[in-house]
Every structure is written in C-alpha cells, then in structure tokens.
Design brief:
Layout: H1 2-16, H2 23-46, H3 51-91, H4 94-99, E1 102-106, H5 115-124, E2 133-137, H6 142-162, H7 176-195
Parallel strand pairs: 1-2
Helix pairs in contact: 1-2, 2-3, 3-5
Length: 196
C-alpha cells in the first residue's frame, strides 16, 4: 500500500535521528537505514518494484547485514565461552569430562551450524549429537530439560545392553540400520537395470 509505505519511510527517517548505536557499530547501522530509505524513495517515486533494483538492494544490504551477523556470532560465542570454558576446565577432571553430558535446549529444531552446538562440539571434541551432546527443542524449563536428559540416559543404558555395547543405537531411528542396508540394495538393483 502506497500510503503505508510513505508513512513507513517518514517513520524511519525521523527515527534515524533518535536511534543511538554504540560507536563501534554506528556507521554500519546508519548505512543500513540510509540504504533502506534510499530504496523506499525509489519505490515511492516509481510506484513500482523493479526486480533488478530489488536484487541490487538485497545484495548491498546483505553485505551490511553480514557485518552484523558476524558481530552477533562473535558476541554470542565470546559470552558463552566466558561462562563455560573456565567452569569446564576447573570443575571437571579428565575422567568426568569423558562422561559429561550437555543438553542444549531451543524453541525450535536447531539448524545446521547452530552456534551453541558448534561451540560444544569443539569443546568436547565431538562430531555429532549423541554420546555427549543432546539438542532438545520446545523445552522452556529445567524440569522438562532434566526429564529429557533422564530419558536419553536411560535409552543409552538400555541400548548398550540390548545392542552389544552400542549406547548410541536407540538415539537414532530404530529402523535406520536396516533401512540403510535395504536402500543400498534397492538402488544397486536399479543401477543394474538401468545399465542393461
């Protein structure tokens, strides 16, 4: 809507002068706002969203936003490291570290590369979730988190007894191994049929 867009531009323009950013990020934030104001003016003037102009705006803003993204990752990881690493090094001996379990909670499924998982994978020398690191979604309190951890530990113990020492087996789909074997067979058959 043209009227709403025009109002939005006025709001951004007036807010720009009142927003105070820390000095070390101030220029980048103003550059993002100014780029947005400039692009909105073009849309209001032409009353049209040109695909090439939109693409150019997105590419320019991506460069500016990537600075914020990198800064956010560094700040988050530095904060996490300042709390965790000294605690990990000072409160656990080597034996305890080998049996340590870390439960990471989140409101939704963690995406590939989720920074908290990446941090703990590196700290504990792990390649994937399972043995020492667990991610649980939709957990918003400690009792629920402890319940998840308890079930996970119980599954590991049961798995170890049932699957000849493989404590990780019940942490993946129960049909996974058989499915993987059969999928290979299915596609080997189809490759043979295709090559004939």
């Amino acid at each position: 809507n043209y009227i709403q867009l025009k109002q939005y531009l006025q709001d951004i323009h007036s807010l720009r002068n009142f927003i105070q950013f820390p000095s070390h990020i101030q220029k980048n934030q103003y550059d993002i706002i100014d780029l947005s104001i400039e692009y909105l003016r073009v849309i209001l003037k032409t009353k049209f969203v040109d695909k090439n102009q939109l693409k150019e705006f997105c590419q320019q803003s991506r460069i500016l936003f990537s600075i914020n993204i990198e800064l956010a990752a560094r700040i988050h990881l530095d904060m996490l490291d300042s709390k965790i690493r000294s605690w990990y090094q000072n409160h656990f001996n080597d034996t305890e570290r080998k049996s340590l379990k870390v439960l990471i909670t989140g409101s939704k499924t963690a995406r590939y590369g989720f920074l908290a998982k990446a941090y703990f994978f590196t700290l504990l020398g792990e390649q994937h979730e399972g043995k020492h690191i667990i991610f649980a979604e939709s957990i918003d309190n400690e009792p629920k988190a402890l319940e998840i951890l308890g079930v996970w530990l119980l599954d590991a113990k049961a798995s170890k007894y049932f699957f000849n020492g493989d404590s990780e087996r019940l942490h993946r789909d129960v049909l996974a191994d058989a499915a993987q074997t059969h999928v290979k067979r299915l596609f080997q058959k189809s490759k043979c049929l295709l090559s004939v």
